[in-house]
Design a protein that fits this description.
β4, α4 and β5 form a beta-alpha-beta unit. This protein is 47% helix and 15% strand. It has a single domain, classed as 3-Layer(aba) Sandwich (Rossmann fold), CATH 3.40.50.720. It is α/β, with parallel strands linked by helices. A 7-stranded parallel β-sheet has the order 3-2-1-4-5-6-7, sandwiched between helices.
Length: 247
């Protein structure tokens, strides 16, 4: 396989970093997106990588902003080349029960977690179709599948991601472009580790495999879906949750 070019939004988060490193180690040229104010910390991370760091280039832009996304995608393509693979992993939380969920926190989560998927995918999908190859993987969540107390904004955005996946998958299926969703369960990450230990244990007890997942396991699922040999898989939602939620 000739080297492919990948763009990962939210590429410097816990899952995003692992996706970037896994793709780079597999031979992809990777543009890792981060929010502009996080750029300095992201540069330190990339500088500290061994081997794969040379294949990862940082591209700061606000994926939640349509115009800035256009600028960022153009910069990514100047840096690594035309985007063959897009991983939409940008995401935030602003948790509150609906009665206390302020409009700004509803909008912030919808813009970052869902609008960003539209903003960036729209910029690259035509190029993929014209070249006859493309892979888009959208990172959703088990809480977009089953809902979660205090996360009406997050659950709505993550559920919307898979609706977007299925619609766009139908539009480009005959163009050699696949569009899929990966829905992680509870993953070892700073977000989960912030949860009080007693609460974490209760969650762990509900997971049939008896543990939290790792960012590496999400990255391996992504790597499978973007492989050239995975072209007959599209419009799917791959759950990686240790059996926590089964359809």
């Amino acid at each position: 396989m000739a080297a492919r070019n990948a763009l990962v939004t939210g590429g410097t988060g816990a899952i995003g970093r692992e996706i970037c490193q896994t793709l780079a180690d597999a031979g992809y040229r990777v543009a890792a997106n981060c929010y502009p104010t996080d750029a300095d910390n992201a540069r330190v991370w990339i500088k500290g990588l061994n081997g794969s760091g040379e294949s990862i280039r940082l591209v700061p832009f606000d994926a939640a902003d349509y115009q800035d996304s256009g600028r960022g995608v153009a910069e990514a393509e100047e840096t690594v080349g035309p985007i063959d693979v897009l991983i939409n992993a940008a995401g935030i939380t602003r948790d509150a029960v609906l009665a206390k969920l302020e409009p700004e926190n509803w909008s912030a989560v919808i813009r970052t977690n869902l609008d960003s998927v539209y903003n960036v995918t729209r910029r690259v999908i035509s190029g993929m179709a014209s070249r006859g190859f493309g892979r888009v993987v959208n990172i959703s969540s088990v809480n977009g599948q089953r809902g979660q107390f205090g996360q009406a904004n997050y659950s709505a955005a993550k559920a919307g991601i898979h609706g977007f996946t299925m619609a766009v998958a139908r539009e480009v299926a005959r163009k050699g472009v696949t569009v899929n969703t990966v829905s992680p369960g509870y993953i070892e990450s700073p977000l989960v580790l912030q949860v009080p230990e007693q609460v974490r244990e209760k969650i762990r007890e509900q997971i049939p495999v008896g543990r939290f997942g790792t960012p590496r396991e999400i990255a391996r699922a992504v790597l499978f879906l973007i492989d050239d040999a995975s072209g007959f898989i599209t419009g799917e939602d791959l759950s990686v949750n240790g059996g926590f939620h089964m359809d």
